[in-house]
From TrEMBL, chains A, B:
Keyword terms, alphabetized: Lyase, Metal-binding
Catalytic reaction equation(s): 3-dehydroshikimate = 3,4-dihydroxybenzoate + H2O
Pfam families: AP_endonuc_2, Glyoxalase
Protein name: 3-dehydroshikimate dehydratase
Pathway: Aromatic compound metabolism; 3,4-dihydroxybenzoate biosynthesis
Binding site for a divalent metal cation: E136, D167, Q193, E241
Listed cofactors: a divalent metal cation
E.C. code: 4.2.1.118
The keyword Metal-binding is assigned to this record: yes
Length: 589, 589
């Protein structure tokens, strides 16, 4: 069934048993068993068969069988001998389909007739045992490297036990046109392997073996691709085969959930699964974090409410609302409130996409907010309008304010292993559009950054490009809430005069800025430690506070015109300033 | 002077101050200051100048100035304005050479005449202030992307303050022939930047920005390249400019030492520096580790001596000698003894290549062994013949033995940040030839592996391809000593009968082996849990013990014919078996 889901064991980390347990827990129907995983296992094939049965998993594919076809007769004999052994093993395993990859062997010859005849012989051997042979063109196959070519050979061999295996990576990485898939009879498509990938300009073998991603995490159009396969009448499972350096060493349990989420979203986009739609998100309702209230007062926020039953204060300035959770871990952004056009609908969609739904804890008469956990543990609350404010007993504080008007975005540093998972989560669960990944050199290593969302709700996701070791500090790096204002220069001046802990930016930054641009307000940027960026559509002024918790700070931003970015070019500058400020507070010269 | 050494701040991690301190401590004469490092620094250019002077560093280059030449007149005016500001800054900084990279700007035009005229104008401006402009062809420059082209433009501009900057990466990555460098007058080569790199088939910009290495760590022939530049009469420093994802986040102090070692070795190979030669190494004298003596007895070793003054036992079988250090940390290989044709010469060479010389601790009448520390902390002792054995009081133990004859190799798992450094260390300090890097999929992530040495002394260096997080176990991974024998099947059987803790290899491994090869002794391999590999020149039989310390085990190998490898294809199998054995001992199902 194209509704069924499978995953190749090579996608996940650990022993075969670790992988099978993770796949079953994430709800997969079946697995492709990668030969090397079986070879290293202390369980015999029949024991693995029982284990899979106990876990509710079918074994949909045994893979791969390599370098079989278009060889001289003596090699064919050895290959058939090898195949017989593997077919015996598959019988024990209870797997009825074997993947045969197009040859990369120096012994193979460029002869479709011979390839077809030999594959026919293999299919005959397989068919006798109730096994099907799925022939796949590797993108780097020696003579056969397109799916059209593999299909021509299968058609020529014309055996009921021989069909093709289609792999989205091998097809899309070569920029092959996938539309001709519709011309292959569905029953001759024996298997479908799915992988996404970022667009990289490198050797396709290296790209394939290291950088594949789950559907929705990369740049391939898997919706269109899978649509062609479904339209052809394919009836087998949608199966993931993703070689990825990070997934290979990450905890397989969340990785399997991430994998399953990618298939749920793909099945929705292809139209073989219906999910609750993602309701429109209209803005940030609040951010909850643990910082001293005095810092918020210095920034012009007023303490306007106290939660009826929890140790939580509501602080407000303009439409920017911050919750200070006195019980939360120092310095983390623990929760985000997002304004949803349909909070219950947002929660239903999240749940259908495997987001952990958080237990609802609310006193009598308090708002019943739905919440789910993002991959990094941040709690996402769905708020409908301002009803949730009634949970706070108003104080008599008067809001004067320093010119801050709302929340622009929230920057969530992602754990190394969860960067790609986070993109897929926010894209599929919340319907936020991801920007391309950008990269910058921070003082202690390269950082990847990716924004999701649009003008109403914006999040930025950052992670180190190489997981850092002991030397590089700031692991995990600080997170921040970026607030908006209409006049960054005036707000910065007012806040500094009021004693807010604003971060000093070094003069060298302004010397360079003045060399690059002829700005009439350059002196005022320097005076107020305000950073500057521009793009084709507008300008961006922004400044930061010092770190106000162990790993959190505030940014204040002003967008002029249609500026769409986040001032990433300036991030290394304020990261260095944060580092030096912290060293100087610690008394280190 | 081509004897002088410099390093670009972009090679190292941290703040500008961290980088300068590390460069000075490693003995560099000068630095190239990367603009972004200065911009983020709280120190003004004149303060940086003073800091460098205090550290004994000259500022040899300010870099980079981009997208200057071959532009329309209004853009030229803006670029000259920018240049004036940067020249002012350089005056403050005390830097007299600026790097100008060939343009990648969409505003540039393909007009050598215009490029030369505008660079001449820039040089005129620079010359007035005593500044020199070094023009460099980026490998991905829009119109100018070869050194020959950059030199044609410089020659056409014909200004004393304009010369070329040569960068080995930009030249060798494009497979340009470097021999024509000899035709450039030495005084017109204003600067030389050196970087090595592995051969990668990818977009050259990505290759350059992420994967450069220090000379001697990659695949480029930097000796020939640098030889051409020296022959041309270049008189400036040899300066490193290496963009590398790992070095960017690693402790800059050892990284700077590694960098300096690469230049010392390069200067030797080019013939501008004389070092003590690396004496011939004739074999492994011993390996020192912390394991229970009972394990060695089970493996057929005899306790043949006790150190006169230290808590160290000498165990021997055939010519394999192991030192058991009862005081050492459980499970590490703490030291290697290598037989040197000239131990004092080995130590002198090591010292000249910045290897930390270990303090000599020996009682009266004991051998005075020279020793140095490898990058991972392993102590390397240089032994001349068997004299060192006299430090051990012989026991009356009788050697019977189980057929083990010597040490084949020692496998040292490398800390993630030090993999490339380790290669350079063993190659330059000990004169061991490195094999190419291989890669394999271990159960908990990809592993890079590289062997160094030849038939007399062999070491293998392994490291995770992606630094592992909390989930993947075995961080750091086990190390092992590989012992030789003449008949692995017989030795395995004898050891197992004697109760040695040999590792069981799963039956699935042998099913696969029998499918791949038709081996007459297949059943005996299976019976004795012996692994098998072959290459063009021979065969390899090997088996492992269980882990006998927290992170150490023994391997026993038999090389047949000219087999040159290390059975890496089987490593994932025994790694999984080690893992499962450990779980089963811990009572985890």
């Amino acid at each position: 069934m194209p509704g069924d889901t499978a995953i190749a064991t090579v996608c996940l980390s650990g022993t075969l048993e670790d992988k099978l347990a993770a796949a079953a827990a994430a709800g997969f129907h079946g697995v492709e068993i990668f030969e090397n995983d079986l070879i290293a296992s202390r369980r015999s094939p029949s024991e693995i068969r029982r284990l899979c049965a106990d876990l509710g998993l079918t074994i949909d594919l045994y893979q791969p069988f390599r370098d079989f076809e278009a060889v001289p007769p003596d090699l064919l004999r050895a290959n058939l001998r090898r195949a017989r052994r593997k077919f015996d093993l598959m019988a024990e395993l209870g797997a009825d389909t074997v993947l045969v990859c197009s040859s990369v062997s120096p012994d193979a010859v460029d002869d479709d007739e011979l390839a077809a005849a030999q594959l026919r012989e293999l299919a005959e051997l397989a068919g006798e045992r109730g096994i099907r042979v799925a022939y796949e063109a590797l993108a780097w196959g020696r003579f056969v490297n397109t799916y059209e070519h593999a299909w021509r050979i299968v058609r020529r061999a014309d055996h009921p036990a021989l069909g093709v295996c289609l792999d989205s990576f091998h097809i899309l990485s070569r920029r092959s046109d996938p539309r001709a898939i519709r011309t292959i009879p569905g029953e001759k498509i024996f298997f479908l392997q799915l992988a996404d990938a970022p667009l990289l300009d490198m050797d396709v073998l290296h790209w394939s073996r290291h950088h594949r991603l789950f559907p929705g995490q990369g740049a391939f159009d898997l919706t269109a691709f899978t649509g062609h396969v479904v339209a052809a009448g394919y009836l087998g499972p949608l199966s993931l085969e993703v070689f990825n350096d990070v997934f290979r060493q990450a905890d397989p349990r969340p990785a399997a959930v991430d994998a399953m989420r990618s298939l749920v979203a793909l099945r929705e986009s292809v139209g073989v699964l219906e999910l609750p739609e993602a309701p429109r998100l209209d803005g940030h309702a609040f951010a909850e974090l643990a910082v001293p209230g005095t810092v918020l007062a210095d920034l012009g926020f007023a303490h306007v409410g106290t939660h009826r039953s929890k140790p939580v204060q509501l602080w407000q300035q303009g439409s920017a609302r911050l919750l200070v959770n006195e019980a939360a871990e120092d310095g983390t952004i623990s929760a985000l409130g997002l304004i949803s056009a349909n909070p219950a609908g947002s929660a239903r969609r999240a749940e259908s996409l495997l987001a952990p739904v958080l237990p609802r804890e609310h006193g009598p008469g308090e708002a019943d907010l739905s919440a789910v956990a993002a991959p990094d543990g941040t709690e996402i609350f769905f708020c409908g309008g301002d009803g949730w404010l009634q949970d706070f007993v108003p104080t008599r504080a008067v809001q004067s304010g320093a010119g801050i008007t709302g929340i622009d975005h929230v920057a969530l540093t992602q754990p190394f292993d969860h960067f790609d998972e986070a993109t897929l989560f926010y894209r599929s669960v919340l319907g936020l559009r991801p920007d391309p990944v950008s990269e910058f050199a921070a003082p202690f290593g390269l950082v990847r950054s990716r924004a999701v969302g649009d003008r109403d709700v914006r999040l930025t996701l950052d992670s180190a490009l190489v997981r850092r070791g002991e030397w590089a500090p700031g692991v995990p790096s600080p997170q921040h809430v970026a607030l908006t204002c209409d006049d960054a220069l005036a707000v910065a001046r007012a806040l500094r005069e009021a004693g807010a802990p604003l971060l000093e930016i070094p003069g060298n930054y302004y010397d360079d800025l003045e060399a690059r641009f002829d700005l009439p307000f350059a002196a005022r940027l320097r005076e107020n430690s305000v950073l500057y960026d521009r793009d084709e559509d507008g300008e961006f002024l922004h400044f930061c506070t010092e770190l106000v918790g162990s790993r959190v700070f505030f940014e204040v931003v002003q967008r002029i015109g249609g500026y769409r970015g986040y001032g990433v070019v300036n991030t290394p500058v304020y990261m260095t300033a944060h580092r030096e400020r912290r060293l100087s507070l610690a008394g280190v010269e």
